Structure formats: structure tokens, C-alpha cells
Amino acid sequence: MFTGIVEELGEVVKASEAFLAVRGPVVTSDAALGDSISVNGVCLTVVSVEGDVFTADVMEETYRRSVIGKLQVGDPVNLERAATLTTRLGGHLVQGHVDGVAEIVKRTPAAEWEEVTFRLPPGLAKYVVEKGSITIDGTSLTVAWIEGDEFSVGLIPTTLEATTLGRKQVGDPVHIETDVVAKHVEKLLQAAGSLS
């Protein structure tokens, strides 16, 4: 479980079809075998730590649902260690289980912040609500508006500088994790409907 508060921008140092190695001095400072680290919103399990680089195995399911497999050496990535029972919940409850890949369709800069619009993949818009929480590349954000399959968020200067979202351009893919509560409510309602 994570909070969606990115701790640092890491850097991919090696990538293959089966594993990913990432440099991240903050997240590796206390990392151990079996720990979970969110990489652009994808929960990965640490299999080794050497200095400030951790390695994680990557499964076929992860490649299928995300763009982790397209990362290249030198690419920046958002990193966050798993939450503990004493962690402040500055964002929202994030599982690190990507629901799909969205695309940036528009960036509108303002004096001190920027509005970014995304297009969701089919089937996810029903879980996104105005003023609700959403996770984009592992970053906890608030939905400003949603219309059809497009929604926007506002990015403050800190988010623009401290995450990959300040570097991504129109057309770039991003990982989306919708609110897990919405998905559970939907399943419960479907189950209740089948009992009637």
C-alpha cells in the first residue's frame, strides 16, 4: 500500500524482459529483500539492493497492463516506498496496481501551476469523479473535471518539479490507478443485484 506522495525521482539503470534496476538513494536507504517500491505507480518487489540501486523482477501481467516494459536506461521514474502504520496519509490509499494506461492530450500552463488533460482507456471513466482522487504515474492527484473519457488535474510547481509529470509531453502514456473503493462498491452492487 502507498500514499501517492512521490519521495524521489529515480533513474532506470538497467531494463530487460524480466527485471528492472533503478537508482534511488532515498528509497534504497532502508530497502531490503521483499520490500515494495512503487515505480511510476507500479508496485514492484525488491529482489536485491546494491548501493543506491534496487532490482525488481517484472511479470508478464505488469508488462501487459503498464508501460514499464518501454522504460529505457536513463529514464526518470517516480519512486515511493510502501506506507507503514506510522506513515502520514498525505495523498490517498494507493495499491500500486495499475488499471490502465492513459494518454496526455493537453497541457495548459498558468502563472504558478499547470492544468493537464488525459484521455482514459475504455472502461475506466466510470471510476473517476470530479474532486475525487486518482493516481497518475504513482502520484496522488485530485480530478479537476471529467467529461466522457477525458479528465484533468492541476499540477502545482512542486509536483511539476518533483515528479515525471513535469517532463511528460502531449501524447505520452501514463499509468492510471483509480480509487479502489469505487471498484469495491461496484462489485458489491453487482452482487446485490444478482441476489434480487
UniProtKB/TrEMBL annotation:
GO biological process, one term: riboflavin biosynthetic process
Keywords attached to this entry: Repeat, Riboflavin biosynthesis, Transferase
Top EC class, one word: transferase
Source species, domain of life: Bacteria
Reaction catalysis annotation: 2 6,7-dimethyl-8-(1-D-ribityl)lumazine + H(+) = 5-amino-6-(D-ribitylamino)uracil + riboflavin
Pfam families: Lum_binding
EC assignment: 2.5.1.9
Sequence ranges assigned to domain Lumazine-binding in this UniProt record: 1-92, 93-189
Pathway info: Cofactor biosynthesis; riboflavin biosynthesis; riboflavin from 2-hydroxy-3-oxobutyl phosphate and 5-amino-6-(D-ribitylamino)uracil: step 2/2
Mapped Lumazine-binding repeat ranges: 1-92, 93-189
Oligomeric form and interacting partners: Homotrimer.
Function in brief: Catalyzes the dismutation of two molecules of 6,7-dimethyl-8-ribityllumazine, resulting in the formation of riboflavin and 5-amino-6-(D-ribitylamino)uracil.
Name of the molecule in the record: Riboflavin synthase
